[in-house]
């Protein structure tokens, strides 16, 4: 996708996710010609101008700010948009009604995206006339930093819409992954929650404390999986026999862990809650996410650089070939 | 712990783990005065001299190599050791017999460590006279790069032994975590295997492919958890309401994912295997772990630097305070 001088993006919902998307679009070399923001909150303009700079961490932003348009109505917000992304409340009825209204006023070719972390596109689209244009584009928070976008279409979403959506994000150096079924929680959260459940279980048993568990993850699978995902990692762990070798060597322990996890009560009873919640509160108080995001950005920069390097070295068969193509100019 | 000019470390077992530990010790500013390696394989000396340099990736190693002693017998290997770590075959009887022999010939004060990923110290120590000195010191592979060490004592292990072991690793910039129960798979593997199970399940369902799943993890929770573990991350995700706020906001989805995971058949039937194994094999062939380890080391260097910086800034209450103190001189 070439840089399009006439690209209008509309964001509905100016919460944390919406404004983080705004920061991403405005700071990218392929920024839209116009970024429209719509939200029902009072004093929207003041709020946006005050809040948006927090996502920039001191970068120069005066130029890109001129592209922002604050819409006074939904109709005005969507009437000339090429892309419309909603990051509103997680409420099915609100989203259903929203898309009916959007459909009335938006251009026919506009792409319709929902940031929802849980409400499938097929349910959101139920009252629409044309159900082919809507899909979930679920970011990993915060989207102005994290590369992942889970694209979760409904069965009614057209393949062209999925393709155009992938193309848009790939051109911007992001990692859009097409999720083939409307699974509960999609994929990233499901994976993370599976680990979280086991983590809660181990803290509840007293095997480790909350900060010890965090340190374990930060010193082992965190950095490992930033570089190579679980399948690639265990495939490497099996030597020349690959993943199969890994299961031959250590499959017994894996199975024992899984059997043990099958007996986990987390989610069935509430006993764990006070222990885990109070430890977390006591140890971390309020986390400085600006600091966290700055460090995460540094790591992602290193990974971007390495992926660029390995792509140059041997196009198509390198360790890190599954890579973003470019990165935001603000990084 | 000050640099001890008279520190003799003995490594039993010269496989990948043993030699990776050797590389770590020899490349550290607090390197031992003598590093003894013992293994029953033939031509051990040639093998070690040939294989060890692979762990260094081109660093100058001539100096530290002079500290290596190849032992001709177990008795010779342990007789003047301060620390003895075994990284031998994962076989209970072999380990039991080994520790009985070690006990006969090693100094009384020597620390006895096992690298096992699955055989508890209490079982390994069963035939020993003094069961207070043995504990599991389980690395996250490869130990010359990854900071985590899971210290898993038996109920019979003395608190002093645990403390001395923690002190040893902390002084070397590593992250030794005391695991309070001899849980199956300890903690790191249990957490990773919980996620792996869900990953296999999603690939088996056809929701995503193996490389797509890896990309999802590499672009989201990998870099996130390298910087802040799951509890800290979700605590931040809940805003000022912390982890409790997180569960209030999204607890419904979390519970639905957990309920869904409860129906997972992975491990109960074998149907998933061919699908997952063949996809992994086809996509990744043989992973270049030298390249992977080099990139991981760069990420860990960034994290080390940031932790040092945040420690300077506000001792004791910073985002990244749970940090290694120093790092190997080879980094």
From TrEMBL, chains A, B:
GO terms for molecular function: L-gulonate 3-dehydrogenase activity; NAD+ binding. Residues 306-331 are annotated as: Disordered. Residues 306-316 have a biased composition (Basic and acidic residues). One of its GO terms (biological process) is fatty acid metabolic process. Residues 185-252 form the 3-hydroxyacyl-CoA dehydrogenase C-terminal domain. It holds the Pfam family 3HCDH_N. Residues 9-180 form the 3-hydroxyacyl-CoA dehydrogenase NAD binding domain. Keywords: Oxidoreductase. SUPFAM superfamilies: 6-phosphogluconate dehydrogenase C-terminal domain-like (SSF48179), NAD(P)-binding Rossmann-fold domains (SSF51735). InterPro entries: 3-OHacyl-CoA_DH_CS, 3-OHacyl-CoA_DH_NAD-bd, 3HC_DH_C, 6-PGluconate_DH-like_C_sf, 6PGD_dom2, NAD(P)-bd_dom_sf. Signal peptide: none annotated. PANTHER family: 3-HYDROXYACYL-COA DEHYDROGENASE FAMILY PROTEIN, LAMBDA-CRYSTALLIN HOMOLOG. Belongs to the 3-hydroxyacyl-CoA dehydrogenase family. This is 3-hydroxyacyl-CoA dehydrogenase. It comes from Byssothecium circinans. The lineage of its organism: Eukaryota, Fungi, Dikarya, Ascomycota, Pezizomycotina.
